Amino acid sequence: MAQKKYVYFYGVSKELTEGDSSMKAILGGKGANLAEMANANLPVPPGITISTEACAYYSKTGGKYAPEMEKQLKVQLKKLEVNMGKKLGDPKNPLLVSVRSGAAVSMPGMMDTVLNLGLTDKSVLGFVEQCGNERTGWDCYRRFIDMFGDVVMGPYTGLTHHDFEVELEAIKKKYRAKEDTDLTAEQLKELVGIYKKVYQNKVKKPFPQDPIEQLDLSIRAVFGSWGSERAEKYRQINKINGLLGTAVNICTMVFGNMGAKSGTGVAFTRDGGTGHSKPMGEYLIDAQGEDVVAGIRTPRHLDDMPDEESKVWKKVHTDLLKIMARLEKHYKYPQDVEFTVQEGKLFMLQTRNAKRTGLAGVRWAVEMATGKDFYTGESQPKILTQKEALMSLSGEDLEQLLFPIFDIIAEKKGKVITAGLPAGPGAAVGKIVFEAADAEAAVAKNADEKVVLVRHETSPEDVGGMWAAQGVLTSTGGMTSHAAVVARGWGKCCICGAGSLKIDYKEKTVTIAGKVYKQGDWISLNGSTGNVYAGQIPTQVSPVVSAVVDGKASAKKDPIYKMYEQVSKWSDANRTINVRTNADTPKDSKAARSFGAEGIGLCRTEHMFFEGDRIWAIREFILAEDQKARKAALAKLLKHQQKDFEGIFKAMDGLPVTVRLLDPPLHEFVPNSKKDQQEMAKRLGVPLKKVTERVQELHEFNPMLGHRGCRLSITFPELCVMQTQAIIGAACKVAKAKKPVKVLPEIMIPLIGTKAELDFLEKIVRTQAEAVIAKTGVKVNYLVGTMIEIPRAALTADEIAETAEFFSFGTNDLTQMTFGYSRDDIGTFLPDYLNEKILPSDPFQHLDQTGVGQLVKMGVKLGRETRPDLKCGICGEHGGDPESVKFCVKAGLNYVSCSPYRVPIARLAAAQAAIKG
Ligand code: PEP
Ligand code: MG
What are the PEP-utilising enzyme mobile domain coordinates in residue numbering (predicted)? Predict the structure, then answer.
């Protein structure tokens, strides 16, 4: 049997490179992209990737290497040594490597990089010889002990970077060195001795002098970090499922800390916050990788590179920009690259799709496909097709364009107390907290609580708190710091590097310009400008909402609106199904239509029963002793309902409107408290006892499975009569108005389980509708259909379609009844189910395609066997969930229906499903 391949080689030449960017699942994102860059002959330091499958094996077996892995690693290591002409741990000519984690999806929760692996007391001397720079040699060794101690041994021993940092500060003080770079080789050598002691104190073993042991421990640390709490949390928040594990990248070291012609940096081909197409980045001269992200020295901006003292930087800058443009074109996605310059020679250490906000995502997509800057009109290379642009977006990206921003006037009046880097756009208003755990706890206690997390800097352990907070404010770190990158990925408001913050974690205070702010004080962040304000600045709707919903002419000129419009147009040109909305009022109907809704898929009539005095009419109906009294009560509702329908038909002129007959159990309309019951008795002129008795009668053990839906109208046909009169009455009235409205009413009967239920009510509906039409003399075409929301209805859809002219899948109830999970009580056990991975996600948010989806498919198939032109749609909450929408396209539905603000998202998802085919 052929043995499984666990260890891959990349670099040196295309021929020697194994793998490419299509192998992310096995090589991880980093490994796959390094191979891809090597294939494209880009300057990549050669290396080895251990596959994610090896990690999966390690996790499954509680820490065993996969058979053959070590042997394969040995072979590949040899290949690397031969090609580099160096040997790991060699006292004369040592090979140094970095060890890095890299899953298929980039995950800040996992192990950080270890650099300079292979250095020992002996090999450091050879390395000094090799690079001809004693200072560089000892600097690399002390960094290695620090990183190895913190990253590899830290999780088991409590050793941290801080333990080493204290010693670094002490030696700097001792020798009056201002910067790390001021320390001499001798002083760094002394520091190495101190670091080794720090290591031994905590780890209780000397610092390992065998490079193979160093490598082995590092590989185990990378594999182990996959299952760490913070990595698990990150995956949970970001809904990352189904990955095997992380790969391990063992890369030949190149050195950015070799003096003025060396350096290291990170760069983005476009701005991940605003989406601006200008490359941006940061670098440090005479430094190694971690210095840039750690915020120890303030990095320099990419634009400054050509003006550096040493001439080499001008060419490096040109080369880097060329490579970045090439990578962006190649990957058809803006890239986030890491690079190192060793004595004037540029090396690419990593490339990956850049993290971005929703705004940046939309801007990238439209600009890369139109070849035009939406803000300045300047042209730029066309990199994507219209379809590729749509596929690069997610529903959340579009959703972010609808997020609030600060009210402009209020912000002008606000007092800027400090400013930092605009790392994640949008507006955030909340109470100050200093610990991620406090942010999480506050929101867990009260979901409406708004907090802003204020810290020196964030680390992967803070992701839970960052997620819970409205925004994040840090005093150190640049645009590529942890806080910035994570927040941007989520589209969360974030300001970094606000240097004037003086945070006292113990006292839980932050001092800004002499003023002390305590935990719990309000603060407002503008993540698009970097400005920080004291107090609460009111927010205002996004330009898209202002242009679309309010029709504001000025907002229509806003580039953000124009980009939204472009994406929407492309979505409509590509999608194959309709998008309707769930709306119950003329106002919501109008808003939904301006977001592109092509009709109403669900008008829940019961929502109209609560407004104003109407609740008293329905309560009168509930208390009525006989049909006559019930009819009298309903007559009061009729005129209100008819008026509402008139407004809705007008808003949806020319488009179909599906109105559902009353659905919820009647107990939802009566009060529970004694006080309210007394008021009800008084208002309706009946004794209190009558009210309390009726309320008791309406009590059900399982109201969701009780007297609701079509069952109500079967018991009280006068309900169905009144509602049909209101719907068709309204339709006839607006259809014959001076300015006639084109009406397409669809009357929908809820919660059908048998054909007989539908037949019973269909007859009443048709009789009443025909009577109204005859009386008004207006020819209105209408349909009578049903919801498919009980499994039995899906199973007998062929019979039901004999009567029903359309089906609308009510996947809220269908999910409830298929799983047997109460939709109102799932919160009590869902967290456990998600934690234990018993459910992949909340089935009320994301359609369970295997189970509930099966019933949808069956319903469509059986229904159309009876009635080939049967119109089928979905009106459960899933109608606005992108993945569920894609399923609906595949299942052959004619439309999805969702809440007004989700309409743009559903349009995009429908287009993506059609493009994917
Ligand atoms: C459904 O059950 O999916 C539905 C749309 O109806 P409701 O949520 O009103 O029960
Ligand atoms: Mg329902």
Answer: 448-530
Q: Which residue of the set 317, 482, 667, 878 is catalytic?
A: 482
Q: What is the pLDDT of residues 262-280, one digit of tens each?
A: 999 999 999 988 899 999 9
Q: What does the chain come to in residues?
A: 917
Pairing of strands 531-534, 539-540: unpaired
436 and 352 fall within a common domain: no
| 810 in a labelled binding site | yes
Is residue 554 situated within a structural domain? no
Domain end point (choices 293, 322, 356): 356
Nearest to residue 809, comparing CAs of 790, 787, 793, 786?
A: 787
Query: Measuring from atom 1 of ligand 1, which residue has the nearest CA?
Result: 810
Of 663, 816, 874, the one to substitute when testing ligand 1's pocket (max ligand atoms within 8 A of C-beta) is 663
**Domain shared by 319 and 200, yes or no:** no
Whether 108 is in a domain gets the answer: yes
Closest-lying ligand 1 atom to the alpha carbon of residue 602: 5
pLDDT given at position 490: 72
- Residues 677-691 pLDDT 10s: 999 999 999 999 999
Would you state the pLDDT for residue 378?
Answer: 95
Phi/psi for 578 (5° steps) reads -85, 155
271/286 Cα distance (integer angstroms): 26
Among 875, 895, 897, the mutation site with the greatest number of ligand 1 atoms within 8 A of its Cβ is 875
| Residue 399, domain member (yes or no) | no
Owner of token pair 């499922």: 241
Q: Does 676 map to a domain? A: no
The reply to whether 206 and 248 lie within a common domain is yes
- What is the tally of structural domains in the chain? 4
Query: How deeply is 415 buried, as exposed, middle or buried, from its count of CB atoms within 10 A (0-12, 13-18, 19+)?
Result: exposed
Task: Identify whether residues 208 and 271 lie together within a single domain.
Answer: no
CA of 876 to the centre of ligand 2 (A): 7
What residues contact 270, with CB distance under 8 A and at least 6 apart? 276, 277, 278, 279, 280, 328, 334, 354, 360, 364
Q: Do both 249 and 291 map to the same domain? A: no
Q: For 436-595, where are the E strands, in sequence order?
A: 451-455, 471-474, 493-496, 502-504, 509-512, 515-518, 522-526, 531-534, 539-540, 578-582
Report the pocket of ligand 1 as residue ranges, CB < 6 Å: 602, 604, 663, 789, 810-813, 875-876
pLDDT, mean over the chain: 92
Q: Are residues 481 and 579 in the same domain?
A: no
Instruction: Write out pLDDT tens, residues 313-372.
Output: 999 999 999 999 999 999 999 999 999 999 899 999 999 989 888 889 999 999 999 999
The per-residue pLDDT for 824 is 80
CATH code, domain carrying 884: 3.20.20.60
Beta-bridge partners for 300: 283
CATH of the domain at 323: 3.30.470.20
The 10s digit of each residue's pLDDT in 872-887 is 999 998 999 999 999 9
Q: pLDDT grade, residue 590 (50/70/90)?
A: very high
Q: How far apart are CA 324 and CA 142, in angstroms?
A: 32
Q: Whose CA is nearest to atom 10 of ligand 1?
A: 813
How far apart, in whole angstroms, are the C-alpha atoms of residue 906 and residue 599? 14
Verify that 283 and 243 share a domain, yes or no: no
Q: Is 482 a catalytic residue?
A: yes
Ligand 1 atom index nearest CA of 811:
3
**Which numbered ligand comes closest to the C-alpha of 818?**
1
Pairing of β 97-102 and β 114-117: antiparallel
Between strands 416-419 and 531-534, the pairing is antiparallel
Amino acid 358: pLDDT: 87
866 annotated among ligand-binding-site residues: no
pLDDT greater than 60 at residue 295: no
Per the annotation, does 604 bind a ligand?
yes
Q: Which helix (H) or strand (E) holds 285?
A: strand 280-285
The last residue of one of the domains, among 296, 326, 356, is 356
Q: Which domain holds residue 317?
A: 254-356
